[in-house]
Amino acid sequence: MQEERWHRQGCLAGKGLALSPGFYPVSVKKKFLVNGITRGKMFVKKFKEDFYDVIQGNRCLLLVNFDIDAICACKILQHLFKNDNMLYTVVPVQGISNVVQSYQDNCNDVKYVVMINCGGIIDIVGHLEPPEDMTFFVIDSHRPLDLCNIYSESQIRILHSQGSGEDIPEYDEVFRDSSEDESDEDSDGESRQAKRRRLNEEDMLRKRERREWEEKRDTILFNYSQYSHYGKSSAVLMFEMAWRMSKDSLDMVWWAIVGSTEQAILNKVEPQVSVLEAGNLQGQVSRLSHRQGVDAERQQQSAVKIIYDKDLQLALYRHWTVESSLRHSMTTAVALRLWSIRGEQRLRELLAEMGLPLAQSKQRFSSMDLNLRLEFREMVEKLAAKYHVEDIIGASFTLQFGYKFKYCASDLVYAMLALLESSGKDRSPHHCFLDAMDCLSRMKKDTLERGIEKAKVMLASVFKTAQGILEMKKVMNAGSFLYVIIPEGTVDGRLFAHPHTLLMLAQFVLRAYVGSSKRKGAAAAPLVASANYEQEEETCLLVGIPPICEDQPRSLFGKAFEQAAKNINAALDADYFDTTIIRLKTQDRSNFFDALATLLT
């Protein structure tokens, strides 16, 4: 199966490339030729009537991507399914080939397949070749969506948020009647004299119009698909459906909050979108708390309570030491330049000026003096402007259950990420997926605590590796982009063979580099990070991220990666649902970076 996934890429353009008639391969062009059928966008707007009521009472197959938002969305659906006594099968999937195999293994006696964050960007019918009576419901935050899914007759139905603002091409702009092609093909058997008679002025005009339409179509497709980005959280979409069905709860809104928080932490959506979404979710929390008779002044400790309040954007600080949290949170580490000796001095100065004894800062936050704990946020706020760490002042959601269960949404995101990406010889990816899902259960506190401990190791490894890269000046400038290669043989090297961890490292390194660089235009440079993936197969993992100056986190690396690989005739494994994440033969990496630099110049 591994060998089947390595393939030669088709001709796809990247930034600054001129469009050509060969912009899309023949196999792709044929997808946009139909037999005179006009179709509308297959978006499901009425989630209850056109999705939930349709599948209710039937056994469903849930294919769920390995990301936090997908897991949270799945958890909400599971809760609804259990309440309605529905039969379902949950299968975690890590890539496109995994989707194909999982579908083939589990499609018997199933008429409805729900794909969460894993089906929107691929031609589902083309990849899975399902029977005509099989229906797929797609809940996917990846963008852009595949046009064959959008304009499916009825087999593919996409759950889509209202007013998403996506510029989706019209059907007639990208699909055309194939009867003309068939007539041209039939003419191959004609005699030369008959062909000459057909080449009259009308035929020439028709062919010219078709060429012009194809060129325009290629331009439209390129403009639509050139950037990879993310849409609304799938977990939030599922919560909104539960709300409209009057089946929502505080647990469900909490899962939606965690899914939305993952998008914010990993910079999948612009900050203002995260703020607006948090405001909407706060309104839902207030409504549900009031409905369930939750009173802040008379709260029973056995009940669930979600609080939205001003908080410090410091990673895991309630479960770590203050010093470690300040050191390993990207915002403070970059602002104070903690990878340098001068940065260490500034951290000591900050702690001293806060009036926080060094001994206290090295203790677990929960073990600190009570007065210091209560005053900690105010201490930081007073000095935030002086030390240029204003960004750590914000607001967050906190879940409280009983006396000891108190976690903010980002705690769960970091814990789930750490568990999700801790697969190895002693732990399969499937078990890691279940561990991450267990973090959402209030009854599985031990799993959540284990995830938090792993998250500490993960964040410390990200900082330590970034520190080494910056100290050794390993961020290379390729002109149109930056790149960094994680050294082989490091203790933490295996950790970065996972996409999310490598993504976090790339974002840390880019922000630190831009913050400390004197080079003009550094903020406008995207970055590619690479780490060894499989030592035996001699493959490496690559992740591309957009420049930090971009208001919208859209990346052009998906198309650029494909074109660069084609230009050097390199085998590329683009199996991930995020097209900015790929695998490559390690021996091709150097030539690949050269080709990418030429392409983006």
UniProtKB/TrEMBL annotation:
<feature type="compositionally biased region" description="Basic and acidic residues">
    <location>
        <begin position="189"/>
        <end position="198"/>
    </location>
</feature>
<dbReference type="GO" id="GO:0003697">
    <property type="term" value="F:single-stranded DNA binding"/>
</dbReference>
<feature type="region of interest" description="Disordered">
    <location>
        <begin position="176"/>
        <end position="198"/>
    </location>
</feature>
<keyword id="KW-0235">DNA replication</keyword>
<dbReference type="GO" id="GO:0000727">
    <property type="term" value="P:double-strand break repair via break-induced replication"/>
</dbReference>
<dbReference type="InterPro" id="IPR003874">
    <property type="entry name" value="CDC45"/>
</dbReference>
<dbReference type="GO" id="GO:0006270">
    <property type="term" value="P:DNA replication initiation"/>
</dbReference>
<dbReference type="Pfam" id="PF02724">
    <property type="entry name" value="CDC45"/>
</dbReference>
<protein>
    <submittedName>
        <fullName>CDC45 protein</fullName>
    </submittedName>
</protein>
<keyword id="KW-0539">Nucleus</keyword>
<keyword id="KW-0131">Cell cycle</keyword>
<dbReference type="GO" id="GO:0003688">
    <property type="term" value="F:DNA replication origin binding"/>
</dbReference>
<comment type="similarity">
    <text>Belongs to the CDC45 family.</text>
</comment>
<dbReference type="GO" id="GO:0031261">
    <property type="term" value="C:DNA replication preinitiation complex"/>
</dbReference>
<dbReference type="GO" id="GO:0003682">
    <property type="term" value="F:chromatin binding"/>
</dbReference>
<feature type="compositionally biased region" description="Acidic residues">
    <location>
        <begin position="179"/>
        <end position="188"/>
    </location>
</feature>
<dbReference type="GO" id="GO:1902977">
    <property type="term" value="P:mitotic DNA replication preinitiation complex assembly"/>
</dbReference>
